[in-house]
Every structure is written in structure tokens, then in C-alpha cells.
């Protein structure tokens, strides 16, 4: 199967300038993501699961390692070294990220929030809104809320909008950071069905799930991470 992403020796640490210390977040992470398959990241709190996703999406600049992404033209790009322009273009066309929290314009209605990625790709506004409405309906967002700003929504309703926005453009590589953490069981089942459909269409996914049951239901490959520094160990001092 086609490898979309290869992560080789990824590490991320943060520098506390005032204390002269390095705080490790993830270390020596190796994994692959293949077309039509979901790779799940598992491990204890503090193992750096979210740091891996943010490094791939370039929210964080990696400290070490290679993040080799193969684009639609077959070109291999090291995301750790890619320019800001390259990263933004990949986000617009090929790489999506569903985070744990919804960030959007404060007065924008839910329908337009979800349709926005399609508008960025040049789709007609009416067509984009129609597709957004269909996806919101599948995730059980009531029609009365479609033109309301999600800032007023409950946590579960916000996460449905967040998930719909992340899925609607059907990116080639989809990163998922606990996308169902705030969802009720029925909506979680709806989300699982959508993710399975995306896999069938050849989309590769790298995901963190809150519940082990979701790993069992969706993951084709599982990567176990361990905490970079064990509890009680001294944090590395800079010299």
C-alpha cells in the first residue's frame, strides 16, 4: 500500500529560558501512515502524542527527525524543513487536522464554518454550503443551529462542527486529536461511520483517541509511545 507519511526519529522539546532547562515532549517517534489506513497513537499522558500531530502539521517546529510526506504528485517533502509557503499550501490542499477544540470566526454561522475549507479550494459557495449541511445532518447537528455561531454551542455541538469542518474537504492526510472526546455514543457511532468511509476512499489517517474501544474499531496500525522522561527523573540541564 502507498505510504503517505513516514516519521523518522521525531523529537520535540521545549526550552524554559528562565530556568535553562529542556522539557522533552516526544522522543524517537517512528511511524508510517498509508493510504486507506488509520494509524493510532497510544500511550500515557505526557508521551507526546499531540506533539507528534502538531509537528506534522507544523504547529510546532520539530526539534529532531524527519517527517517525509509524499504529495499527490509523488514528490517527497520533509515537513520538518518545508517553507511556510509549502506548509500553508499543503494545509489548503492535502493535509487536514481535527483538534480537540473549535477555533473559528466569532460571528460566523456553523454552516459557513464547515463550508470554509471548500471555499478555499474554489468551490462555489452554494455547493459548499449544501455539502456542509449534509455533513452537519449526518453528525446530528440540528438545522436550527446551522446559521448560529458555534461560540454559543455546547461542547459536544462544537465538536460536531469541528469534526465536520475537518472531514468535509477529504484531505489526503487527516490528523485527528481525540476528535470524539466530547461526543455522545450515538454521534460517536456516526463519526466512526464517516471515518470508515474516508478510509475506503483512500485517505490516510493518524489519530489519537480518548477511548481504547475506538482504537479497536478503527485502527489498522497502532504505535505505542512512552513518556520521554520517567516520573521523578531529573529534567536535562542545559550546559
Automatic annotation (TrEMBL):
Keywords: ATP-binding, Lyase, Nucleotide-binding
PROSITE patterns documented for this protein: ABC_TRANSPORTER_1 (PS00211), ABC_TRANSPORTER_2 (PS50893)
ABC transporter domain mapped to chain residues: 5-238
Cellular component aspect of the GO annotation: plasma membrane
InterPro entries, A to Z: AAA+_ATPase, ABC_transporter-like_ATP-bd, ABC_transporter-like_CS, ABC_transpr_LolD-like, CP_lyase_PhnL, P-loop_NTPase
GO-annotated molecular function: ATP binding; ATP hydrolysis activity; lyase activity; transmembrane transporter activity
Record-linked Pfam families: ABC_tran
Matching SUPFAM superfamilies: P-loop containing nucleoside triphosphate hydrolases
Protein's UniProt name: Phosphonate C-P lyase system protein PhnL
Organism: Candidatus Muproteobacteria bacterium RBG_16_64_11
Amino acid at each position: 500500500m502507498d505510504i503517505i507519511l513516514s516519521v523518522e526519529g521525531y523529537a520535540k522539546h521545549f526550552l524554559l529560558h528562565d530556568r535553562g532547562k529542556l522539557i522533552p515532549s516526544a522522543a524517537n517517534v517512528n511511524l508510517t501512515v498509508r493510504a486507506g489506513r488509520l494509524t493510532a497513537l497510544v500511550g500515557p499522558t505526557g508521551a507526546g502524542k499531540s506533539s507528534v500531530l502538531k509537528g506534522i502539521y507544523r504547529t510546532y517546529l520539530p526539534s529532531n527527525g524527519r517527517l517525509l510526506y509524499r504529495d499527490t504528485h509523488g514528490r517527497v517533502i520533509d515537513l520538518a524543513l518545508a517553507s511556510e509557503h509549502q506548509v500553508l499550501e499543503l494545509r489548503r490542499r492535502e493535509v487536514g487536522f481535527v483538534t480537540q477544540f473549535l477555533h473559528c470566526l466569532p460571528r460566523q454561522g456553523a454552516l459557513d464554518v464547515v463550508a470554509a475549507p471548500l471555499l478555499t479550494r474554489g468551490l462555489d459557495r452554494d455547493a459548499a454550503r449544501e455539502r456542509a449541511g449534509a455533513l452537519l445532518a449526518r453528525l446530528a447537528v440540528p438545522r436550527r443551529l446551522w446559521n448560529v455561531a458555534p461560540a454559543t454551542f455546547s461542547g459536544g455541538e462544537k465538536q460536531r462542527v469541528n469534526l465536520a469542518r475537518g472531514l468535509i474537504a477529504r484531505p489526503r492526510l487527516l490528523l485527528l486529536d481525540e476528535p470524539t472526546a466530547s461526543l455522545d455514543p450515538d454521534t460517536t457511532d456516526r463519526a466512526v461511520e464517516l471515518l470508515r468511509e474516508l478510509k475506503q476512499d483512500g485517505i490516510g489517517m493518524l489519530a489519537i483517541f480518548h477511548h481504547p474501544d475506538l482504537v479497536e474499531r478503527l485502527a489498522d496500525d497502532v504505535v505505542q509511545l512512552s513518556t520521554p522522561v520517567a516520573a521523578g527523573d531529573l529534567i536535562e540541564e542545559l550546559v
